[in-house]
Amino acid sequence: MPVLISLIVFAAILVLVLVILSLVVIQEYERGVVFRLGKYVHVKNPGLRMRIPFGIDVVKKVDIRVRTIDVPEQEVITKDNVSIRVDAVVYYRIVNPMLVITKVVNFHNSTVMLGQTTLRSVLGQHELDEILTTREKINQILKDILFETMASWGIEISSVELKSIEIPDSMKRAMAKQAEAERERRAKITAAEGEEQSAKMLYNASEIISRSPSALQLRYLQTLNDIAAEKNSTIIFPLPMDFINNISKITSPKTPPDEENR
């Protein structure tokens, strides 16, 4: 009887150990890729799952959360032969755990290397002005190229962003001079347009006033009113040239007829 009890206890302990060895816990953000005797079987979902112990079933857990790759700073020669330093960030996630395990040895390092080479290749095909002004377009091109390659690895590219673009100091000074010249050009054009509009308005006003002499007199009076409002001690009253000529003829002495005949 004691031997039977011992066997039962031993069997229970053995079953308990086998059950414990057969259990595997997969987190919600993970997937378990199962290999049975080295051959892919299936992918286990999150939860408490069973497997065949003693190395028959090997479960490789894969994190499917969004990952971030900080692409190291790269020195790039643009299409217009300008040397710049650019770094970027890539956001990606695993959508097919089986492909990630079976198609690439180290998917993270492979993604970093692919990001570096793609960044240099794409930026080398664009001019500096285009890179600075159309960053969204460059980001989309990088994303499309990376997505096309990494889709076969079971990886989905969420976003690609250029972080910073460093240009040489000499180029910065040249761009500053160009921007200053552009601002001066715009200022001169604006001033010229203002002069043109002012000349047109003055021409229209003179045409209207010339049709009515009384309008000119009223304008004189309005000007005098504006001058008087400023408490000036001197007031300049404009007179028509015809009026001044008539006064000069009246006040000038008349020449005798005899002197005129001489």
Short characterization:
The chain is an alpha+beta fold and 262 residues long.
Helix and strand topology:
Layout: H1 2-22, E1 23-26, E2 30-36, E3 39-44, E4 47-50, E5 57-63, E6 67-77, E7 83-94, H2 97-103, H3 107-123, H4 128-133, H5 135-150, E8 155-166, H6 169-210, H7 213-229, H8 241-251, H9 257-261
Antiparallel strand pairs: 1-4, 2-3, 2-5, 6-7, 7-8
Radius of gyration: 45 Å
Q: Report the mean per-residue pLDDT as an integer.
A: 83
Count of individual helical segments? 9
Shape: rod-shaped
Describe the biggest sheet?
Answer: 3 strands, antiparallel
Tell me the β content: 15-25%
Structural class: alpha+beta
Low-confidence segments, given as residue ranges, are none
Tell me the number of strands: 8
Order of helices and strands: HEEEEEEEHHHHEHHHH
Spatial strand arrangement across the major sheet: 3-2-5
Helical content, roughly? 40-55%
Cα-to-Cα separation, first versus last residue: 175 Å
